[in-house]
Amino acid sequence: MIGNAAWSEDGRHVWRSFWRCFALCLAAALAVTLAFRLPIIPVLLLLFLLACPIAGIWAYLVSRRPLPVPLGPVPKTHGHTPNWLAPWYDGLCGHLGLGHTFRVKTIELAGIRSGDRVLDIGCATGALACLAARVAGPGGCVRGIDAAPDMVRIAREKAACIGARPRFDLASAEALPFPDADFDVVLASLILDHLPDPVLQTALQETRRVLKPEGRLIVVAFDRPKGFFARLVTALLSVSSGLRRRSQGRMEDILRQAGFRTTRIGNWGRLIGIWRAEPVSADASAIGG
Prior knowledge:
Blueprint: H1 4-36, H2 40-64, H3 89-95, H4 100-110, E1 117-121, H5 127-136, E2 141-146, H6 149-162, E3 167-170, E4 183-189, H7 197-210, E5 211-222, H8 228-237, H9 241-246, H10 251-257, E6 260-268, E7 272-279, H11 282-288
Parallel strand pairs: 1-2, 1-4, 2-3, 4-5
Antiparallel strand pairs: 5-7, 6-7
């Protein structure tokens, strides 16, 4: 059942995909069971029987993917890199309401101008960076980085197909390969939620370093949920301790601790907040202290 090329090269990756999908199915079942106070044993037994074929199909699809040519050394990171999700990432975002309209809104709130230098941290498949490149124009420069090789590969293919000008590199948020004060705008859309607290602080310090003194960081992240559906989604996401902490409305405090002056500039639905963060100079911090 499993493709010979994929199995011979990396059978362990297929099994990891199987067990990952299996665990997600069971976690979703447990969250729904607890949210609606259903009888646990019968529901989990039913979902257990459903999870096996779902995970098997998922592993089969993963195994049929052609093995890619390496882009280069994979950067070391302690954050979560859903490389396995790359082929389905754009479709999933669209179904979750995080597709084109959401990205256009993010670019509008970012206030990108023609000629700006823009960095997209955790660029995934590059859709947001491609939109930013259209706004920045020929005189601007848009760079995207991600630690997941398949994400970067798809981003490069997408940019080539639509004739956009962003450049995508394999790099981690906690070790940005750019000089100091290099960018006018840094975009961090739904990436900071995937970083453990120590890595998050390092990534924010790196962001401050590459931002120009008058530059700005645009953060899109999970916020305190509002409404029943948002709380249900949060319950599903709470299988991740990092997302559980972020959904408690701490993002502004995290950004301030990292040396940013923050302003909430928007929301998306009842679950996601959007902030503008500007680096506070050392002199201003000393005066404030």
